[in-house]
Amino acid sequence: MQQVFSIPKSFKNDFHFTFCPGCDHGIVMRLVAEVIDELNIRENIISSTSIGCSVFIYDFLNIDCVEAPHGRALASATGVKRAQPDKIVFTYSGDGDFASIGLAESMHTALRGEKITSFMINNTTYGMTGGQLGPTTTMGQKTTTSPMGRNKEYYGYPIKMAEHIALCDGTAFSARVAVDSVPHINEAKKAIKKAFQVQLDGLGFGFTEILSSCPTNWKMSPEQAHERIRGEMTEVFPLGVFKDITLK
Amino acid sequence: MKNMEKVLIKGNYAIAQAAVNAGCQCYFGYPITPQTEIGEYLSGKMQELGRGYVCAESELAAINMVMGAVSTGVKAMTSSSSCAVALMQEALSYAASDELPVVLVNVMRTGPGLGYIYPAQGDYNQAVTGGGNGDYKVIVLAPSCVQECIDLTYRAFYLAQKYRNPVIILADGLLGQMMEPAIFGEYPYPEVDTSSWALSGAKGREARAIYSCAREEKKQIQHIINLDQKFKTISKNETTYEEYNTEDADIIITAFGSMARNIKAAMNVLRQKGIKVGYIRPITLSPFPSDRIYELASSHKDFIVVEMNMGQMFKDVKYSVNGKAKCDLINRPCGEWLSVEEIVASVEKIMEKNYAASV
Predict the structure, then answer these.
(1) What residues of A are in contact with residue B87 (Cβ under 8 Å)?
(2) Which residues, 6+ apart, have CB-to-CB distance to B356 below 8 Å?
């Protein structure tokens, strides 16, 4: 009988799944693992991990990982890459880690054109701590620290990371994708692969932002959460490739 | 042996070149006076040698770059000063818990806050008690001359990898900025094999994860106990100090780093005046030579601590003396050295206070 479904080699097969029901981290981590398999880089890869729900990547991915303090994953990854230029280095962070506490590290890593790959889960909230307002929380969105909804007077505006990263001269690839539907998941995988490919080709910083659901903290069903991504979230955070120097 | 030529060199450059000689593969740093020459020197040197160098966007980034680099088994370093070293304390706590061999040079200036660029020793507590969160300890080495800037930089890289523990080289603006003759020699320590734990990509082995978080209570307890046990081993094996004239002494002066430099001269003046003074200088501030100080205090020798802060090492000396002897402080918060004359006068004043009645 033909096997039609299996766990990627880069995914551990003895994991205890800890994400909430309907959370998209599982989908994105699986995509990353599939891409690592397809590029055949598992035995040559090191990840600097972040803090937040994304930290659990070392529980799931069957690869070498080093923990960085909150917001410092890209600095740590820079250190790994400078020490081991022949290794493939990547980070996997939430929006709080990448775009709030780690914004300086993220921007400067892109500006330096570090040959590393970074993924940012954008779920518009701090998931692990129970759904507080984060750098990507949309206008009007209710969180535990914006109980009346995000307004510009108290909270300012959400950050559009893929566009900002695209503006950095050191960036080789920057895209925003979503994992709310099968066509989008397929597109997401292509962007994840491209973000690795520009590193493999020595072209510069590769970045993909992934719109993901957090049904628990959004107080929605998984279906409603994906509806939100397709509707309100993609209006604020349009999908697309914002920079790809290989197309020039 | 190579590099036996005596050279006249500034402390900051001595530390930088010693790091190169020790095989430091990566340097990451951010400018701050009075240590900027270290980064300036290494920016060119590391590129010449094809090694890693980044002008980091902040001290936070710099020390985390070091953590990333050393996690792959290479030697790496950052350097900074006081208020900026404060920014690195979170990472030091992680590095201690992750057991990563980070080397950090602190060329101290004045504090608190921004302070100023005068030399000071006000970061003693920050360094030896661990400025970050949780139960951990960092090895702290305190050079008192440019030659020791070299020797202790070599030792820092070795101890960091040998024990998989962060090491701080605690110098100050005086040492960083002054020139002295010194000999580099060769890196005198064996290379430590890091292959059993370093990250290299999970080729032909299980994947490795270096992290500080143990979610099960029992594992977390055991982890903290293990770190403590490791430091007890470090204390047993690596505690070092310089000692002089203590045998017949009634009073022992103790100081660390640049403040120790005038003690020997002051001791000679006091001995000529008939006051039997000895001297002990902790070279490892952490682990601290508490046992030796207790031993000396137990044989009826009183202590005077001389330091350039408001009495930080003084507390450790008092703790070590443990009530067995008198313990006094001669200090200045920052700035110029206490001169030999000032030290002599202060010691005489303390003598008068402590012993006038019994004489």
Answers:
(1) none
(2) none
